């Protein structure tokens, strides 16, 4: 791992709230049909992202319960894992969190091509990351714009016939067991070696059937 000391799995023994949906592919396409295995282009890919919003005003009173007023405002978003942490510099995180994917080419395109993390990894940890090419990290831009789509922070997955769970792993979707932190650190550093955080898996095994998540830890363990 980067520090040579083993990462700390801070979520071991902790339950994480999850919402699991099973959606037929026919419900995701314009014509209700699954694209054939030989088809190509943006219609063969589905992109998803999540946002969180809160009301604009929060009112606190000494003798009254907390109140919220006003329209809901987007305060965070997530598509690819670690884009906010790895790609977006601190000064533009708020701008990114309140924006939409169709604005990403203009707002974060330069950060995708010229990420600042490799320089920070080299300066702080001596990671030996490669210099960014003069024309930028076109490989990362390509991962964020598959099948001729526009650069956007969306988690995309190929929905053509023949795609299975076995070949639907990050960045083609994101399987539960995918170690996305190690993958993204390795991609961003781009020095021909594998980087990691020293945490390589969940503390409990995942299930083989829907909803696939591990059973939660008991809130009242038996002594």
Head-to-tail CA distance between termini: 35 Å
Beta strand count: 4
Shape: globular
Largest sheet: 2 strands, antiparallel
Q: Strand portion, in percent? A: 5-15%
| Widest beta sheet: strand line-up | 1-4
Number of helices: 6
Q: What is the rounded Rg?
A: 20 Å
Order of helices and strands: EEEHHHHHEH
- Overall average residue pLDDT: 88
User: How does the helix and strand content classify structurally?
Assistant: alpha+beta
Return residue spans where pLDDT drops below 50 for at least 5 consecutive residues: none
Helix content: 10-25%
Describe this structure in words.
By secondary structure, the chain is of the alpha+beta class. Helix content is 20%, strand content 13%. The chain is globular, with a radius of gyration of 20 Å. The mean pLDDT is 88.
Summarize the structure.
The chain is α+β, with helices and mostly antiparallel strands. The chain is built from 6 helices and 4 strands, in the order βββαααααβα.
What is the topology?
Layout: E1 45-48, E2 50-59, E3 67-78, H1 83-87, H2 93-97, H3 104-113, H4 117-125, H5 138-143, E4 155-158, H6 180-189
Antiparallel strand pairs: 1-4, 2-3
For this entry, give a set of tags.
223 residues; alpha+beta; two-stranded antiparallel sheet; 6 helices; 4 strands; 20% helix
